[in-house]
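User: Quick sanity check before I run a bigger batch. Here is a single chain. Can you write out its predicted 3D structure?
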Amino acid sequence: MKLKRTNAYALHALMYMVRHMTQLPVTIQTISKAEGIPYRQLVNLFRLLADAGIVENTGSEQAGYVFGRSPSEVTLLELFELVEGQSIFEECFLKHCDCAGTPDNCGIYASWKQATRSLSKMLSEITLEKAAWGHPEHFFQQCRLGSENSK
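Assistant: Done. Predicted structure follows.
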């Protein structure tokens, strides 16, 4: 399973908001500069997040965003599935295999279901608030530059 990079952008943008709760509303431009996330991607993400009620626009993109729901109520599982547009654990990771396997007749699929059930439970217990204070801050462009320089 591999999640879109957009999930990391969404998570980091929302963690930024949690860490700066006393300074809300915050603009997309501010988050983009602070986190090194491409501005256009944040615009699209915040539309999605606003449609889901996770954030609210205070009037215009220039006015900024606040939380529509408490960060202690939004889980990582909910966020990732919103960004992915589907459940992230429904299918077998060998879904392109034409075996027509089910968890009942395939040991690999049964193990996958058991493992993803545990991971799903864990992600449903981690809120944005908990994630914000348990994850190091970083700047996306610096991360990319560091990995490019090591090649």
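The CA atoms of residues 77 and 124 lie 5 Å apart.

User: Great, the batch can go ahead then.
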